[in-house]
Amino acid sequence: MARLDRLRVYPVKGLDGIELEASDVLEGGTLAYDREFALFDEADEVLNGKRDDRVHDLATDFDPAIHTLTVETPGGETRAFDLEADRETAAAWFGEFFDEALSFERDPSLGYVDRREMGPSVISTATLRTVADWFDGMTVEGARRRLRANVEVAGVEPFWEDRFVGEDAPAFEIGDVRFEGVTPCGRCVVPQRDPDTGESIPEFRERFVRKREETFPDWADSDAFDHYYSAMIIARVPETNRGATLRAGDSIEIVAN
C-alpha cells in the first residue's frame, strides 16, 4: 500500500536537509521549514549548490524548535547560529567562509523554493533505489541526498510519481491533503556531485538520460516531459488543504483530478 515514508525539508536553501515526522503545509503551499532561509549576495542572488560547490564542504543540521543552525567545516570547526534572533552573525560567518558579503533572509510563509508558484517535490523510494543502481557505489541515501525531494512515497513502483503530470493526470491524497502534479523536475548540476565531498561522477548526465529513457514507464505521459534529465515531480497543494499537517506513515490514495 502506498504511504508517506519520509518528509524531508531543507531549512537553509542549498544546505543539508532534515527529516521530520510531521510538517504543516504553509499558506504559500510549501512545507514548513522548507527553504525557509537563504543566503543572498550583494546582487540579491541566492547562494546554493548550483552556483558554488563549496556548500558540499559544510555539514549542517537544524533544530526547528529553536531555529538553531549547526555548521561543521572540513577542519572540524563547529558553530551554532540562532536564525530567528541573530541572522547577522550567521551571515558574517558564512560570508567569511565563502569570501563574499552575504545576508541571511527568511520567508516563513513560502520559503525560497525555486518554483514559488508550486509546492512540495515528490519521489518514490523505488525511484531512488533505481537511480542509485545506475551508478557504482551510490546508495539509496546518497540518491536521496542528491535529488533532495520533500515527500518520499513507499510501497509503489519506480517512477510512480510520473503518472501525476501531463494531460488528464490524476491527483493523489496523503491523508486528507490533496496533491496535484504540476511538472517533472528537470535536474541541475547538483545531483552529479557527492553530497559530502562535491566530487562529480564522470558523464553522470549522459548515463542518467540514457537509463531514464530506457526505463521510462509506458503509463507516463511522455508529452509532459521536455527531456529525460528529470526525476521527481513538483506538486501543488490546493489552498483549501493548506494549513493541514502531513505525517510520516499516512496512507496515499490516487484520486481523479
UniProtKB/TrEMBL annotation:
Where is the secretion signal located?
A: none
Q: Which segments of the protein form a coiled coil according to its record?
A: none
Drop me one GO molecular function for this one: pyridoxal phosphate binding
Q: Which PROSITE patterns match?
A: MOSC
Q: Give the SUPFAM superfamilies listed for this entry.
A: MOSC N-terminal domain-like, PK beta-barrel domain-like
The protein's matches in Pfam families, at most eight in alphabetical order, are given as: MOSC, MOSC_N
The protein's matches in InterPro entries, at most eight in alphabetical order, are given as: MoCF_Sase_C, MOCOS_middle, Pyrv_Knase-like_insert_dom_sf
Give the MOSC domain ranges: 87-255
Q: What is this protein called?
A: MOSC domain-containing protein
